[in-house]
Amino acid sequence: MTLTRVQSGVGALVVEAACSDAVGDLRLAAAYRLADGTTGLLRHTDGATTVPATGARPILLAQRHGFERLVVDLHRVRDLDRLVVLACSASDGPLAWGGTLVTTTLGAARVEVSLDGPAGAGVVVPLSVYVVDGELVLRAEPREVSASIREACLAHGFDRITWLDARTPLR
Q1: Which residue intervals of 17-167 are DSSP H helices?
Q2: Of 65, 80, 114, 153, which is most buried by a Cβ count within 10 Å?
Q3: Is the residue at 170 inside a domain?
Q4: What pTM does this model have?
Q5: Contact 43/71 with Cβ under 8 angstroms?
Q6: What is the reported pLDDT for 1?
Q7: Could you count the other beta carbons within 10 Å of the beta carbon of residue 15?
């Protein structure tokens, strides 16, 4: 789905994992590449909840507000090149996959991607977001389970992130 220039540039793009507690300790993360070539991984469980980490107006924000949530400030959409949303267990344990990844804009555009799947451990990339000439292109990704966050990032072209281990990027 391609958002219009207004939908891509006003307000925020909010991505939420609408799941019950029965799913388990599901968390969201975002692998990102900024327009200047900077790459990284954002998740609120690391303490670093914004990209960039300093400044008055972050491009990306990770938080828990009822559900796991990632927020893209659309006023800074041209500073973003692309991102993928990762869903995984905070403890690396198995999840009873279920629920919906809900993406909304200020203009009420809504994209829903199912998180349903067989129970098990691993990382899933349900959604990718690309910036093309200032417009956002949202793509539901085929359900493929990766063994680790690092493996999922590599499978989606994020090979410039340096890793301490399969879950932890070097900051």
Answers
A1: 149-155
A2: 153
A3: no
A4: 0.93
A5: no
A6: 85
A7: 26
